[in-house]
Write the structure tokens for this entry.
Amino acid sequence: MNIYHSTCPSCGNEADHLMDGNAIAVRCVHCGYWAGELSEVQERRLKRHQDRRMGSGNGETHSILSPEEYWALTYLIRLAKSDTGQSARVANFLLSWWNNASCGAFALTDLWGLDDEVTQAMQVVIRFLCRRQVYPDTLGFKDDFQAIIRQWRPHLLEEEA
């Protein structure tokens, strides 16, 4: 299932369009417009997506990142710091932003091994980086990225010593 943003036919604000095979559903969080049928699983996924876009409600904010961008970046950081089948690929993505020359570039074929939710979070980060040319340490994530380096590129720390 993929979630895209487009204009709500009712109020003109941004709405979420879900595509899963041939099924299409539209939901607007602004006016409540709804069209289409979703399974329980699809409904939960849409709710998570909309919670991220509108802010998680947990009070976490960032001075530069929108709630969706903050959620996407912290989600990817948590994933890179874990030990799952996708963690190394996510770490490669993040570390290529940190320092592509020493940490290595991100291979686009790594996307083939990632879940849709992960690649959508990456897309949010990429859109942010297209607008704001900043490194993660300037956003307050230096310690997180150093932890990812310790886990996935320990030889870089040995070279510094």
Observations:
- The longest helix spans residues 87-103.
